[in-house]
Write a structure and sequence with these properties.
Layout: H1 6-10, H2 22-45, E1 52-58, H3 64-69, E2 73-80, H4 83-95, E3 101-105, E4 118-123, H5 132-145, E5 146-159, H6 184-193, E6 197-205, E7 214-221
Amino acid sequence: MGSQDPWWSVLTYFGQGTKLSEDQIELFYSKGREHVDLARSVVTRNGHRFGGVKALDWGCGLGRMSLALAKEFKEVVGVDQSQPHLDIAAEQAQKRKVQNVEFKRTEMDLMDLGEETFDFVYTIIALQHVIPPLQRNYIEQFCRLLKPGKVGFFQVMTYITSYKWNGDIERWKGGGMQMHAIPQQEVIESLMDNGCYVVENYHKLDAAGVPAWDTGFFLFSKPGR
């Protein structure tokens, strides 16, 4: 989808197969600023500073949130597995003269980031597209990559009507736009098992415009200074 329909694959608002005008592209990136504003409000109302030296945007896609985060942090690293998405993100950053963002292609385990750590770890509208075992793996990596005393913020589907993960990985290897959920308690346990804790979490019903779907937003931290 990254090479055939990159804009729709990130934000279905525009409709599949839509060739975006310049105005629509600007609207697309303005939505990223809205998401980052939401993260800022959650971080600051819990007494933490939003902004700093280095932020990670996991599943950055076309760089919507990375470019918005670049206004708040000295350096932003946007990572994704789709090179076509990353190419467009880099092109848009250059067009906007944003020079403090680096886009990297990473593997599933994120180990290619090495010992790098971040003041803020962020992802939204991305975890829901990977299967629950990978969701747990990424939450583990978010804890590893977050500096002690700092916070991260992510969103993940916690309930989808009639969805049940049965461990059948082969069923989900076909690609396409997939939606997966992980129960809230498993999210909290994954954080705690990896040295982090939940600062705040809240939920939004009718996620993705579908009644009875539930998405969770989690502000988390790692003890230390």
